[in-house]
Design goal:
391 residues; mainly beta; Immunoglobulin-like; 3 domains; 5-stranded mixed beta sheet; 4-stranded mixed beta sheet; 1 helix; 7% helix; rod-shaped; disordered N terminus
Length: 391
């Protein structure tokens, strides 16, 4: 065969192959089945975020599902315009939706956003599927103003008069930042309140100096300040109670007795302003042997007696002291007046007469008196062999 014939055969063969392939293409097209579109969907179909201006918030998820089981498909995610604040998940490989669902995580970047409400729509697309849409809402709130605060906001103390009590604490904090120019001040007439010497955003210790305070209720307000921050206030209350003390009622007893005589006991009640001490003791001042103390000492009515034997007439004094551990002493003043025994007396104590035998002489007088009282049952007697003496 010559070269022209060979060229003719090649061209004819190419034309036949071309026509055969074209016919096969048409035949394949004619018999290719039309696949039904599947649906993509999000669950849930919307997400809502809230964030403080310039702050951050946790991601949220929505599950992407397909209405039919297919081999892994390539998903594309797109968001609406002006939604740079919405951070989409990165889909780097086909998603196996035939496993049922795929959770997708969405985030927020609020940097540069002004307070307000924002919304975006995310569209999920895949070949052979109807699109799914997810609505994402964002609320950006204005940051709260810088504020200081105490926790707790009040402290209460109770102390006995001129006593001591342990410090108490309150934590000072700021809702934002860390101010370094913190100061504490307290209201007037609060010298009893001891402020911490070092003021920081931390647990602060407050103390009490009750020296010189009379029993009663006291109040003070502590104010924490820092430049650019709203102040914080701490209320401090103090109750000063009377120191534990014993007392006698009445605080004095007075006795009067005739020389070597007797007199009835008298009582005074011993009490405590708080508690019930059991270690009570009574002591009396020196040179008070004439004062008889009760043998049983309790918080009760106590009986005090007098032994005037051997006492000469005059005035005597003693101080009884009641004591108990942890209590201020109580004192009872006891006075005794010893009077001379009741007696009659003549003034003058003697009379002298002179008379001639069988004669007469004038009467003489002596005054009879009593050192106390006015007896009405007076009698006179004379010694034997005194018939010459006329009464």
């Amino acid at each position: 065969m010559d070269k022209n014939y060979n060229s003719f055969l090649k061209q004819t063969l190419l034309k036949l192959i071309s026509r055969f392939c074209f016919a096969g293409f048409l035949l394949g097209f004619a018999f290719t089945p039309v696949l039904a579109q599947s649906d993509l969907s999000f669950s849930p179909t919307s997400l809502s975020f809230t964030v403080v201006q310039g702050g951050s918030t946790a991601n949220q998820s929505s599950d992407l599902l397909s209405s039919s089981a297919l081999t892994p498909i390539v998903i594309s995610l797109n968001k609406s315009a002006n939604s740079e604040w919405l951070v989409l998940p990165t889909v780097l490989e086909p998603l196996a939706l035939d496993l049922g669902l795929v959770p997708l995580s969405f985030g927020i970047n609020s940097s540069g956003l002004a307070p307000g409400d924002y919304s975006a729509t995310v569209t999920a697309s895949a070949f052979g599927h109807n699109d799914a849409t997810l609505v994402v809402n964002l609320t950006v709130t204005a940051p709260p103003p810088p504020v200081l605060s105490f926790t707790p906001t009040s402290l209460s103390f109770s102390v006995a008069e001129d006593g001591n009590t342990a410090n108490k604490t309150s934590t000072l904090s700021a809702n934002t930042g860390a101010p370094t120019d913190l100061t504490l001040t307290k209201s007037v007439n609060s010298n009893w309140l001891v402020l911490p010497s070092d003021v920081t955003l931390d647990e602060l210790s407050f103390g009490i100096n009750a020296e010189g305070l009379v029993p009663g209720n006291y109040n003070s307000t502590v104010t924490a300040s820092a430049n650019g921050y709203a102040n914080a206030t701490l209320t401090v209350t103090l109750v000063v109670t009377a120191a534990p003390a014993l007392s006698f009622t009445p605080t004095s007893l007075s006795f009067s007795v005739a020389e070597d005589g007797n007199t009835a006991n008298k009582t005074s009640t011993l009490s405590a302003n708080t508690g019930a001490p059991t270690d009570l003791t009574l002591t009396k001042s020196a040179n008070s042997n004439w004062l008889v103390l009760p043998s049983d000492v309790t918080l009760d009515e106590l009986s005090f007696g007098i032994n005037a034997e051997g006492l000469v007439p005059g005035n005597y004094n003693s101080t009884v002291t009641a004591s108990a551990n942890g209590y201020a002493n109580a004192t009872l003043t006891v006075t005794l007046s010893v009077t001379a025994a009741p007696a009659l007396s003549f003034t003058p104590t003697s009379l002298s007469f002179s008379v001639a035998e069988d004669g007469n002489t004038a009467n003489k007088t002596s005054t009879l008196s009593a050192n106390t009282g006015a007896p009405t049952d007076l009698t006179l007697t004379k010694s034997a062999n005194s018939n010459w003496l006329l009464e």
